[in-house]
Backbone:
């Protein structure tokens, strides 16, 4: 069984007060880190940002507002499309505010990606290998 799930989507990025613009979002899931999803945003072959998101939080964000701190998600209807609105807060700017970007993703595509991850590791069946984690921490120190 494959322990990796990958999907590339075209999403809409809105930075500051600018209009939305299309970028690629490369979604990833690895059973070795069963609680996490990775997303790499790119445009014209350049990586714009990398984020690690909680899989359960992304799932919950399809139905209700979730998140505090750097990542906030909520469902949003736009005409005939349901979207997942993902607000990402980055490092501080010189003016004291934080860099902020909002990404809009077609909710059905996120749901399909999550269903693929559930075929690899079902929700509630995630395992944390504490011994491996501690060994990795000790090796870094």
Residues:
């Amino acid at each position: 069984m494959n322990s990796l799930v990958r999907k590339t989507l075209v999403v809409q990025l809105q930075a500051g007060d600018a209009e939305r613009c299309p970028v690629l979002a490369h979604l990833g899931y690895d059973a070795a880190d069963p609680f996490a999803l990775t997303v790499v945003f790119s445009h014209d072959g350049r990586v714009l940002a990398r984020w690690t998101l909680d899989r359960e939080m992304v799932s919950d964000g399809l139905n209700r507002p979730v998140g505090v701190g750097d990542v906030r998600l909520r469902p949003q209807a736009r005409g005939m499309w349901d979207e997942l609105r993902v607000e990402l807060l980055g490092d501080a700017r010189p003016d004291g505010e934080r860099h902020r970007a909002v990404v809009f993703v077609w909710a059905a595509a996120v749901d399909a990606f999550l269903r693929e991850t559930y075929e690899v590791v079902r929700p509630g069946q995630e395992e944390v290998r504490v011994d491996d984690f501690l060994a990795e921490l000790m090796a870094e120190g």
Observations:
- The radius of gyration is 16 Å.
- The first strand starts at residue 4 and ends at 15.
